[in-house]
Design brief:
This protein is an all-alpha fold. The chain has one domain. The chain contains six helices and no strands. It has helices at about 25-60, 70-90, 100-105, 110-145, 155-160, 165-190. Helix 1 runs antiparallel to helix 2 (about 70-90) and helix 4 packs antiparallel against helix 6 (about 165-190).
Length: about 190
């Protein structure tokens, strides 16, 4: 089994642009590598941490019969953070959900047009909403000093809520990288 998702290189089938020192391709490739690296680091840190917290929660609750509310909330926080920090990496690795019934039958140019339209009409508004509304959500949580509603719950709820706009930024960055690549495909394959 190949662990292709751990690679900082684009998924197979992507166009390999020639190096453009200091040009737009260069900074877009660095942006894509950054988004992938954030996703990889988040997965490598948070998945084992979530497993350990889950095991601790299970042992504490079932064997020692101790209050484990903080562990239960920490498990939720780790999962939430993992999802938002890996959204962009999943998009770049082409591991997101898509309907390939029609797309698989289309040519490279048609697929590039569909990807660009998907960015403009779906991903861009979704990422902008995550950034704007998620940012407000996290900021209000910070200003009010929001804590868990549970008596033994975790404080500083704004930290986990701040993952919403961060995830939106990573998703937007991944979408920009893919859109630039698709525009490159359209330029290179002119009829």
């Amino acid at each position: 089994m190949r662990l292709e998702f751990l690679s900082l290189r684009p998924a197979s089938g992507w166009p390999n642009a020639a190096p453009d020192p200091g040009g737009s391709a260069s900074w877009l490739e660095r942006l894509g590598a950054f988004v992938r690296a954030v996703g990889i680091v988040a997965a490598c840190v948070l998945i084992p941490a979530q497993i350990l917290v889950s095991l601790s929660y299970l042992v504490g609750r079932r064997i020692f019969n101790v209050p484990v509310t903080p562990l239960q909330e920490l498990e939720w926080h780790f999962f939430f953070t993992l999802v938002f920090l890996t959204l962009g990496a999943a998009l770049l690795a082409d591991r997101h959900v898509r309907i390939d019934i029609l797309r698989a039958r289309l040519g490279e140019r048609a697929r590039a047009y569909i990807e660009i339209a998907g960015f403009v009409f779906a991903l861009l508004p979704a990422a902008a909403s995550l950034i704007y509304f998620g940012g407000q959500f996290a900021w209000e949580s910070y200003l009010t000093g929001e804590n868990s509603r549970a008596a033994l719950g975790l404080p500083w709820r704004w930290i986990v809520k701040s993952m919403i706009p961060v995830g939106g930024l990573l998703l937007l960055a991944a979408g920009l990288v893919l859109t630039a690549r698709n525009l490159s495909i359209l330029r290179e394959s002119r009829p």
